[in-house]
Amino acid sequence: MSSNPEQQSGPERDSSTTDVQQGHGFGTAPVFLASISTILGAILFLRFGYAVAHVGLWGSLMIVALGHLVTIPTVLAVSEIATNRRVAGGGAYYIVSRSFGASIGGTIGIALYISQAISVAFYIVAFAEAFKPIYEWVATIYGWQLDLRLVSLPCTVLIIILMLTKGAGMGVQVLWAVCILLAVSIIAFLLGEGTELTKPEGLNLTARIGDPDSFGIVFATCFPAFTGMIAGLGLSGDLKNPRKSIPLGTVSATLGGMVVYILVAIKLALSATPNDLANDYFIMTKIALWSPVIYIGLGAAALSSALGSIMVAPRTLQMLGRDKVLPIPQLNDLMAKGRGETQEPIYATCVSGIIAIVFVAIGGLDIIAQILTMFFMVTYGALCAVSFLEHFASNPSYRPTFHSRWYVSLVGAVMCGVLMIQIGALYALISIVLMTIVYLGLRRSLRGQRDFAAIFQGTMFQLTRWLQTTLQKSRVISSEGGWRPSIVAVTRFGERRLGHFDLLRWICHRHGFGHFIRLFNGEYSFSGEIEARIKVDGLIKRTEVSRAGIFVDSLISPTFQLALAQILQMPGISGLPNNCILLEFDQENTDEINEVEQGARLAVNSLFNVLILRSTGYRFGYRSSIHVWVTEENLMNAPMMLLLAYIIVGHPDWKRAEIRLFVCSDSRNVEAEADRLSALMQEGRLPISMQNVTSVSYNSKEALEEEVTLRSNQADLAIVGLTAEDLGSDELAQTLQSYQGANDVLFVHSIEAISID
């Protein structure tokens, strides 16, 4: 049995991956080549001059910096997670699904796959633009205005056929050739003089055209350039040693690409004016040592990026099929199939090719770029969140050999969210809603597998541990104006009597914390504990149905008094010490009072506030009125009684309830005492109007009983006080049976001096 459920990804999924996916056994070079060739792709050659023209050199450098505030944390997170566990095919999807679980991983995996498939179209369209000199020559000689799709569509079909017939091995060989051409073209540009252009005077960080595009639009257009680091990750199932190759290849490609973009931005700002940069997407050809080399570099970069995407996307889809994530079982089986020892994803490649052809046929370069940005942002944010949660949870099974920092991952996750909103709040909202719909669908179809509850279990454990130890060290105690109930309720009856369960959930709805314990008589045994926990499940389900924010538990003990002694020593679940004990007895079963008496006295001796509910079949009636009865003897209990009444009517079940206060005295100063309590309520901002405060004079207990019967016989809950003398006398049982004219009665004895002002 695994001791760490958080690291399990499902035996059926891991075994399938182990059995069928052998891969090509690549080293680090293909990871670096696939990543760097995608980073230094179409955006660098076609749109970075546009960026410098519209936001200036300073803005362009900010785009590079902000983009890498997303990609660098993602690279580090991916590298860290990859060195913690075996990484199989599916790249980023595999890592997310094995960290987040099938529901969340599948949701992100679908978005990632779509973005990868669309990337093929994006790079092919850019590749077609490399033939601009030929288009112009044909237009000049023959007068034909050629459509870009005459090049892009055949090229798309060609690379699909290449992948279907030759597989990823051929793709890597092509990557070597195109990366060499890419390096030559960039060097030729950086060394060029641009003698045909009017050069600006010096390096102006803020120079830009008039009426430029917004920073968000420019960023969205350029961001896909920085997403190439994830391209090499898609080859994870074909790597000999992914724990070594993924960190080394992705980190070096990301840092190298960042340096190149900074150098290119500076070179563009030094070599041409903003207007020239804005008016000519191929401005780099006029700066380079030899103009055709830029077209060659663009074609090489776009082709290599398209090859990288068409290698990666089918492998993601193949792993989605193997994990049974797709909604149609037959589709899962078909996409999971591979050919030969290397398990080339033939069917997944065909589907990816169809998606690419559709987007090549209908989409422009800038539109596709903005769509891609949203999909990649979601994926990168999720990867960074995985890393952050793993760090924060401090799971002992999380032992990567490559270490990032939790705050770096947190910055990456936050930046993804911020930039999505900055780029387009509406599109960000739409993407989040769509992701949520997919997640809910997968959660329903993949029941029993990990979801958000399991993901945050370790995080919540660490947070609770930190809160508990911090509060203990700070020695937090109740202070004037800051008291809140932390109540332990005790019952023998479970679901058969739930009056004080309801009372506890009302009191602890917002302002306090409740711990509901069901007692079982007998000596402790493991089998007895299992049986007790099974019976407690009914109460736990009731907390779900009633949305009660209370903690339910069980306790096995030979006697009630011994059980209560154990309960009084329990630490507070909420991080604050328990301060109240809630006991209950049925008005018709007077034999239960003896245990309540014992428990109340033990709790008072342990300096706990005591709440005793005398429940009836009335079960709080219509929950429309609470009557608080305060006598001269019980003035010390009045603040807690009033505060509890206020807390209870704050629950939605009591939203139409009113509180009435009865101030009782056998002296002539009863009006003055009522005025004093009224002023106290006003200072304490309790929602009790002056019209609901009544002065009651009485000269005996019998007279007080008659007043309660007369005034509170229709009240849904009456709250009365218990004095220390009541708890210490032999007549406690008789006191608890008083106020017979009322329905459900809550007796309150306050040990603490509570202020409500």
Number of strands: 10
Poorly predicted regions: 1-22
Give the % helix.
Answer: 55-70%
Q: What order do the strands of the largest sheet run in, or round the barrel if closed?
A: 3-2-1-4-5-10-9-6-7-8
Total count of helical runs of at least 4 residues:
28
Structural class: alpha/beta
Distance between the termini: 56 Å
Largest sheet: 10 strands, mixed
**Rg over CA atoms:** 36 Å
Strand % is 5-15%
* Overall pLDDT: 80
Envelope shape: elongated
Structural write-up:
The chain has helices spanning 11-20, 29-39, 42-46, 48-82, 91-100, 102-129, 132-142, 149-191, 215-222, 242-271, 274-279, 284-287, 292-322, 329-336, 346-362, 365-393, 406-423, 425-445, 452-474, 499-507, 526-546, 560-568, 593-605, 638-649, 670-683, 701-712, 724-728, 732-736; strands at residues 486-491, 513-521, 550-557, 580-586, 609-615, 625-631, 658-665, 693-697, 717-721, 745-749. The protein is an alpha/beta fold. Helix 24 links the parallel strand 6 (625-631) and strand 7 (658-665). The protein has 28 helices and 10 strands. A 10-stranded mixed sheet has the order 3-2-1-4-5-10-9-6-7-8, sandwiched between helices. The model is unreliable at 1-22 (pLDDT under 50). The radius of gyration is 36 Å and the shape is elongated. The chain starts with 10 loop residues before the first helix and ends in an 8-residue tail after the last strand.
